[in-house]
Write a structure and sequence with these properties.
The complex is a heterodimer of chains A (332) and B (326). By secondary structure, chain A is α/β, with parallel strands linked by helices. Chain A has 11 helices and 15 strands. Chain A has a 7-stranded mixed sheet, with helices on both faces. Chain A has a 4-stranded antiparallel sheet with strand order 3-2-5-6, covered by helices on one side. Chain B has 326 residues and is mostly helical. Classes of the chains: A alpha/beta (332), B mainly alpha (326).
């Protein structure tokens, strides 16, 4: 089990190494209300967040938690109802704040002119920003779209569109890159291509904030994560530290789970049911479990360690039940 | 300048917009061809038939009776101060008057097909301007551009400038081509006098051309501004249709006289045509005297109404684009 975390109280851990300067992003009490028929609804309800410079930060939360709204506020595309935003220690007070020029971003679906090639779309953006054509070549190379540069955007696959969006975000050489679910709906090859592109950007020293539903990917890519729910920060910190807060558990398959649960509880273990099996915590040696069960005539059919992972931590934190796989359902 | 060039490319290089503009040109050329065809010189057989009909009519008893009656009371037929000797010439049909069609008259076209062509070009530009902005909103390209260019007012103004410049060029080219075709036709047919390429007609054509260019530029800007406000091409075109068509119906049904002054169509032609007159069109017009009366509408009066509508659309659009969440 993960530690008890109230939905309105954030668990924030401090990064192991101190950053040379202030954070890339600092949000304080950020609030965004939308008018609805019945009055107002809060998309963000006092969000506090810090992202350290130079790291890859995962931004997680269920649908409707406020991830995209946060990105839109960070980019000046929407105005906050309350709270403050600082980018690289500079306050962002309007859509023309200078700090915003240091951000590149992809928000929601990639938006380009469908009848123009990927290269032409980028060239128009580059020309408007007074950038050279070689810059377009560079970013196309970074996202591995050089071969498809002359293909019309409408013929691009979803993965190519996402990569073009990243290329557009990279045109001005941003110090902070916001990527809103860049791997959403992609096939494995597309995900790998995006991952490689992000890796190149990170190598160049850019701070990356990545919102994603792919928690395995976030765990692999990100140095730290923030988890939000209902517009508030639920947890934030380096991935390792957050996972360290999770207790390790052992899954025990057994013929008589009810009897075994009673015996283990009496022996001082914390036991929960997981279908026909048991999840046992509160121990540091699985042999103690088998011994306690064998002493009472219960013999285990399965004994496996449940390692802490971001997925279970996230699901526990956001109040979602952990879905069990078919294999788990059928486990003896 | 870089941003302007980028927006201009974004505007004119869209396939849909390019096709629409070409279609507007094609329709305009078809109109010119139709005008040329419908005013073509009569053939020898048509002339012979007209001459025969004129000879026949000169001996027609009804015509002869009319001439006799006219000679008794010339003022009643030909107006005050007329002489009896004029009746025969005035009332006897000539071969020219019995020809199947009139020759090309540039003066006549200045009040008929000329303004229509200008309105047609403006209509094409309205769809193009609305498509330009609407497609960017629809595809999400607007958001991408807004992330790249933070100053929203600059982005709006640059896009608007691209629309205005291209619309004006398109209007000038289309209108110019139309009159070039008609002028060439008039010259090739050796049309002289009031219907030919006189300096007065050329002056009128140029003056109306200037107003047509302003109209197409304003139409493009208005459609662009409305679409930036409504963020949807169909919404803009629907609103314009509702205003133009619904407004005409409403004005016709309103139980007030003088409402026709506010009709979009009347003001469009008032802006384009010199010495434009309109009559009250309200279905519920109470006095025949008022309804049948012709009213003059100056360029200034028409321009003030259309310009006022344009300013409202532009201001609302700019304010909304600067303030609203995306």
């Amino acid at each position: 089990m993960v530690p008890e975390v109230g939905k309105t109280e954030a668990v924030t851990t401090t990064p192991a190494t101190a950053a040379p300067a202030g954070p890339a992003i600092r949000l304080r009490g950020l609030r965004k209300d939308y008018r609805t028929l019945g009055g107002r609804s809060a998309a963000l309800d006092g969000l506090d967040l810090e992202v350290t410079r130079g790291e890859v930060h995962g931004f997680l939360g269920p649908n409707g938690a406020g991830k995209t709204t946060t990105f839109r506020l960070l980019l000046g595309l929407a105005r906050p109802t309350g709270g403050s935003i600082e980018i690289f220690d500079e306050p962002v007070t309007s859509s023309t704040s200078p700090a915003l020029a240091r951000i590149g971003a992809t928000v929601s679906q990639p938006g380009f002119t469908p009848g123009f090639s990927g290269q032409r779309n980028l060239r128009l953006l580059a020309r408007a920003a007074g950038l050279s054509r070689s810059r377009v070549r560079d970013v196309l190379e970074t996202v591995e779209l050089t071969d498809a540069a002359h293909t019309l955007f409408r013929r691009y696959s979803l993965g190519m569109r996402q990569r073009l969006a990243i290329a557009a975000a990279l045109l001005t050489g941003p110090e902070l890159l916001l990527l809103d679910e860049p791997t959403n709906g992609l096939d494995p090859a597309g995900v790998v291509a995006i991952r490689r592109a992000i890796a190149r950007v990170v190598e160049a020293g850019t701070t990356v904030v990545l919102s994603s539903h792919n928690l395995v990917e976030v765990q692999q890519l990100c140095d730290s994560v923030s988890i939000i729910g209902e517009g508030r920060l639920l947890a934030s910190g380096p991935v390792e530290e957050l996972l360290g807060e999770q207790k390790s558990m052992t899954r025990v398959g057994i013929a008589d789970p009810d009897g075994a649960q009673a015996e283990l509880t009496a022996a001082g273990f914390t036991v929960t049911r997981d279908g026909d099996a048991l999840l046992v915590s509160g121990h540091d040696d699985p042999a103690r479990i088998t011994r306690a069960l064998a002493e009472h005539g219960h013999y285990v059919t399965e004994l496996s360690a449940r390692r802490p992972d971001l997925e279970s931590y996230y699901l526990e934190l956001t109040g979602h039940a952990v879905p069990r796989t078919a294999d788990e359902e059928e486990a003896p | 300048m870089n941003l302007f060039r980028a927006e201009l490319t974004r505007y004119i290089a869209r396939r849909g917009i390019a096709l629409l503009m070409i279609a507007g040109f094609v329709v305009m050329i078809v109109l010119a061809a139709r005008t040329a065809w419908e005013t073509r010189p009569p053939s020898a057989s048509e002339r012979a038939t007209a001459a025969a009909n004129a000879t026949f009519a000169a001996h027609d008893s009804q015509v002869l009776a009319q001439i006799t009656a006219c000679q008794k009371h010339p003022a009643r037929y030909l107006g005050p101060g007329s002489q009896a000797s004029e009746c025969s010439r005035a009332l006897t049909p000539t071969a020219e008057s019995l020809l199947p069609r009139s020759p090309l008259s540039l003066r006549h076209e200045l009040t008929t097909s000329g303004p229509q062509v200008a309105v047609l070009l403006a209509a094409a530009i309205v769809i193009a301007g609305a498509t330009f902005a609407g497609a960017d909103w629809q595809t999400g390209a607007m958001r991408t551009q807004m992330i790249a260019r933070r100053r929203r007012s600059v982005l709006w103004l640059t896009k608007a400038a691209a629309v205005v410049v291209w619309s004006a060029l398109y209007g000038a080219a289309g209108y110019g081509l139309y009159w070039l075709i008609l002028g060439s036709v008039a010259q090739s047919r050796d049309i002289t006098g009031i219907g030919g390429l006189t300096s007065a007609n050329v002056q009128h054509i140029l003056a109306m051309g200037g107003r047509a260019v302003v109209l197409t530029a304003a139409a493009g800007l208005g459609a662009f501004a409305l679409t930036m406000l409504l963020r949807h091409t169909v919404a803009t075109l629907g609103l314009l249709f509702a205003y133009a068509a619904g407004g005409e119906v409403l004005l016709a049904l309103l139980p007030v006289t003088g409402a026709t002054r506010w009709s979009v169509g009347v003001n469009l032609f008032g802006w384009l045509q010199s010495n434009f007159h309109y009559t009250e069109q309200s279905l519920r017009c109470r006095s025949i005297e008022t309804c049948g009366k012709s009213h003059a509408l100056s360029h200034l009066d028409a321009g003030l109404l259309l310009g006022g509508l344009l300013v409202i659309a532009v201001v609302a659009s700019m304010v909304s684009f600067s303030k609203r969440d995306v």
